[in-house]
Amino acid sequence: MPSNSIDSLLHEERRFPPSENFTSQAIASQAIYDEAATDRLGFWANQARTLLHWHKDFSETLDWSNPPFAKWFADGKINVAYNCLDRHVQAGNGDRVAIHWEGEPGDSRSITYAELTVEVKRAANVLLSLGIGQGDRVAIYLPMIPEAVVAMLAVARIGAVHTVIFGGFSSESLRSRIDDASAKLVITADGGWRKGKVFPLKGAVDGALAGKKSTVGNVLVVRRGENVVDWVDGRDRWWHEELASADAEHEAEAFEAENPLFILYTSGTTGKPKGILHTSGGYLTQVASTHKNVFDLHPESDVYWCTADVGWITGHSYVVYGPLANGATQVLYEGTPDTPHPGRWWEIIQKYGVSIFYTAPTAIRSFMKIGREVPNGFDLTSLRVLGSVGEPINPEAWVWYRDIIGGGTAPVVDTWWQTETGAIMISGLPGVTTLKPGSAQVPIPGIKIDILGEDGTRVDPPNGGLLVVSEPWPSMLRGIWGDPERFQETYWDRFKALSGTKYFAGDGAHVDADGDIWLLGRVDDVMNISGHRLSTAEIESALVSHRIVAEAAVVGAADEATGQAVVAFVILKSKQAKKQTTDEAVAMLRSHVAEQIGAIARPKQIFIVNELPKTRSGKIMRRLLQDVAEGREIGDTTTLADTSVMQIITDKMK
Ligand code: 6R9
């Protein structure tokens, strides 16, 4: 991680206590910590009942009789979309803006809660007319346009299950996710705007569905890019035509609290992405509660903006479900931060008077690089709370964020969580916590975190260890789609024999003497590129699927801008090696990975080598390759089968 070495972190002395002004109006207070410490389950039951509308109240908060399969609020009944829409309208807030949408080319739309509710009702009726019902899977592959939110909520409203696939993923990735989830319907767009151009989406869907039997019966296409698309009669339908003829009335039915809400694919340690399953009542409780407390949301006056794409968990929890369950007004932006000019984000904050802003360290670092002159050219005085997510934020970026974007006063909350945890787990609370740059700080009320050593016993400061969640939590994943064994093995078996059923997060961490937690990055083969998760195995298997490649090893190397960068070491097949220059081979392989997975996975560097460092049992020693890629002295090579390999590789790279 950039400058987040444990040594530099331990010398971080800056402290930022809350101001009296902030504390006097803050949503959170010491009282919620006290409440949760006295009665953890009672606290969550209380959050569920005060923040959400239950069609039928629950009698049991948590059923943990069959770990790791948890049930929260199991006999309660709820409709997630009703909670995000209808009830705000019924409470007299129909005229409040739900979404200020800003298209990349400069077009914009403001949509009220009343309008959004009608759109979702129409879309729900369209889904029903296409034969989608409770439990059916719907794949969503859309740009950041309001229809993405409408589509997700319409699926939720009828008790079906969405799987959103990030628009940057390739046709191949789309196909494997559609197949794994057995989706019956795909909702896409002709194209979307990115970096001043229209990028096509419908074509990738056509590619994913071409030439094979698929569970997909229909493709609904939103018109956005106005680019030319191919059309399969009978299968494809225009979203705007279907919605226009659909009934604007739809009554939300109550579903069980554990009704599946969505599957979201994320990278794990193997080549095959995992379909993380989330359900309804517990998930909505924790996203609503954290969104309110961690961001100090005052829905009647705040304008909130989370820059994440809805294709990631942050977009699910803190663009769609959290803010809408809380009746917030938010900004949704289609494009990139620097189009058409490097101040685009700050211009949007100025235009809408954004008061709460949530983004990733990689973005902050790229703005730091451009310089403070750009944000200084805009009025950012509306900002009062800043959030960070996706990877550790180095103290320098934290302080810059607070000073330059937050006017030297806005609290910065560093929020640690994962696709699997569904909602924020570790973070300071603005108005309560004395903030410490670089530390994610403390578990939120109602969450139990421990740092354990390899032997399953608690590690004391200043030693580092493995981060575990020791008690079930409402928004926890309920499984890996179609693979209960992998669910058990990946997350729950690590400490089972040693200290009971605890959730192993895959992150290393350290606690300081104040009890504040410092995240140290992944301890497995998962990389973090600009806050996006990618697995080394996934990229390696994409590389070896190319005809010229014999073997490949991928590492995440520290990178100033993106946190980590993908670096690949590739052995070519000897017959193929001579057919092109090294530069040609590298260029070919970089674009091959982008086609197989998506542009985010494209290796920054590829080194063509003759050997890879392996142990006697044949395991590639990525640790040594990482030393090479990061330009470090090479570590212990004694377990290598052939100890001269590293010398050959380093010579080759000179
Ligand atoms: C929400 C999200 C999860 C992984 C996680 C960790 C890293 C996320 C972090 C952080 C340090 C933070 N991570 N937030 N590390 N400080 N505030 O990013 O989910 O895409 O599943 O990634 O990201 O390594 O394990 P996801």
From TrEMBL:
Signal peptide: none annotated. Residues 538-619 form the AMP-binding enzyme C-terminal domain. Its EC number is 6.2.1.1. The keyword Metal-binding applies. It is an enzyme of class 6 (ligase). One of its GO terms (molecular function) is AMP binding. Acetylated. Deacetylation by the SIR2-homolog deacetylase activates the enzyme. Catalyzes the conversion of acetate into acetyl-CoA (AcCoA), an essential intermediate at the junction of anabolic and catabolic pathways. AcsA undergoes a two-step reaction. In the first half reaction, AcsA combines acetate with ATP to form acetyl-adenylate (AcAMP) intermediate. In the second half reaction, it can then transfer the acetyl group from AcAMP to the sulfhydryl group of CoA, forming the product AcCoA. This is Acetyl-coenzyme A synthetase. The gene is acsA.
